[in-house]
From TrEMBL:
It is an enzyme of class 2 (transferase). It catalyses: 3-dehydro-D-erythronate + ATP = 3-dehydro-4-O-phospho-D-erythronate + ADP + H(+); 3-dehydro-L-erythronate + ATP = 3-dehydro-4-O-phospho-L-erythronate + ADP + H(+). Its EC number is 2.7.1.217. It comes from Alsobacter sp. KACC 23698. This is 3-oxo-tetronate kinase. One of its GO terms (molecular function) is kinase activity.
Length: 421
């Protein structure tokens, strides 16, 4: 193993796995904290996906360190801590606490934090995160139900989460190349451990940042930061030249879409699917809590329709409706109820012959994959930037498109299913 990746949610893991596979690495994604180094598969890169983005910070740290130990024990020369390209976190963490803990475990004095992903409109300029032309704090992320992002200054955001000094390597330095960029990070680490926000507006900037970290034990960022890492291993003679992409064969069967994310992108995708005629069932967290809506209700509805085409089951709602449900039930209770029910629905759909499933939302994807008993995923073709089809390597034959809530075009659901023919 050359690279070990610790991802704080499932869709983020498939995102970075796709990035590395596209750059010529043999990649395997596992689900959950590895039991030991011996349980990890052989590959150039192993991506460990966890459900730690919104967990208590201490738990996220514990899981991340266990994953790190397993990856290093299996031979990983470098560790990447991967989080969302919109820096999803709160003032309590979990990005800062996990990054700080990994720095101590790997004995590093300086590292990078860069969530930029230009292909999906995420850029970092002078330490500020932009979503398209908007500052993060002006984007729909300001209303995220779990991690509302209302400050675009990542130096400030990250400093509130960690006792490690947080600095900045601006784009003017990055444009001078990898040597100057590395020197800037080293200089920031001279007075004590430092995490520096790395500016990146283009893929070229991400490749410079990647090259600057050749041989360094630790990086942190979105999937974009991985863009330049395979070439580092190639230059060192550790990775073969790029080969042909492996064919992807999705199992024949019925199709379904499960949407738990309430992001603006997913709301648009749900609306587009319904407008195009996809049959849909809307979940109500309050009705679930009161026992008036169960997985059997959803599966009974779906069973009568699966033979006619894909079905859509969604809890996606406007911010006002989400806030109302959370005020009645509590934020964590509302989310847990929906995730648990969608996991049960996924199990029932699989039993009903669904073998092609699109899932929207990181938390939802984790719940669905857990319910289906999947612990390893093979990475397939890209649907939209950052979102591939995957194939369950265990837990039953199933093609899964696991989409971060913020990713994908408006027609993503139909586009994804059409790719499989």
């Amino acid at each position: 193993m050359l690279l070990g990746v610790i991802a704080d949610d499932l869709t983020g893991a498939t995102d970075v796995a796709l990035m590395l596979a596209r750059e010529g690495m043999k990649v395997v994604q596992t689900v959950g904290v590895p039991a030991s180094a011996e349980t990890l598969p052989e590959a150039d890169a192993v991506v460990v996906s966890m459900k730690s983005r919104t967990n208590p910070a201490a738990e996220a740290v514990e899981w991340s360190l266990a994953a790190c130990d397993a990856l290093v024990g299996a031979g990983a020369r470098q560790i990447l801590f991967k989080y969302c390209s919109t820096f999803d976190s709160t003032d309590q963490g979990n990005i800062g606490p996990v990054a700080e803990a990994l720095m101590r475990r790997l004995d590093v004095r300086w590292t990078v934090a860069c969530p930029a992903f230009p292909a999906n409109g995420r850029s970092v300029y002078q330490g500020h995160l932009f979503v398209g032309a908007q500052l993060l704090s002006d984007s729909p992320m300001k209303d995220h139900p779990l991690t509302p992002m209302r400050d675009s200054n990542l130096v400030r955001v990250l400093q509130r989460q960690t006792s490690v000094k947080v600095g900045l390597v601006p784009v003017q330095v990055v444009e001078q190349g990898a040597a100057a960029t590395r020197a800037a990070f080293e200089a920031l680490g001279q007075d004590g451990p430092c995490i520096a926000i790395g500016d990146a507006i283009t893929d070229a900037h991400l490749r410079v940042l990647g090259e600057a970290f050749a041989g360094q034990p630790l990086l942190t960022g979105g999937s974009g930061i991985a863009l330049g890492l395979p070439d580092n291993f190639r230059r060192a003679g550790l990775l073969d030249p790029r080969g042909e992409a492996r064919p992807f064969h999705a199992p024949a069967g019925r199709e379904a879409v499960l949407a738990g994310s309430c992001s603006a992108a997913t709301r648009g995708q749900v609306a587009a699917a319904i407008e195009a005629g996809m049959e849909a069932f809307a979940l109500d967290p309050v009705a679930i809590a009161e026992g008036r809506m169960t997985a059997d209700d959803v599966l009974g509805w779906a069973g009568a329709r699966l033979g006619r085409g894909p079905v859509l089951v969604y809890s996606t709602a406007e911010p006002e409706a989400v806030a109302k449900a959370q005020s009645q039930l509590g934020r964590d209770v509302a989310s847990a109820l929906v995730e648990r029910l969608l996991g049960e629905v996924a199990q029932g759909l699989a039993a009903a012959g669904v073998t092609r499933m699109v899932v929207a939302g990181g938390e939802t994807s984790g719940a669905v994959v857990g319910a289906l008993g999947v612990s390893m995923l093979e990475i397939g073709p890209e649907i939209d930037p950052g979102v591939p089809w995957t194939l369950a390597a265990d837990g039953g034959r199933m093609a899964l498109a696991l989409k971060s809530g913020n990713f994908g075009g408006r027609d993503f659901f139909r586009k994804a299913l059409a790719m499989l023919g």
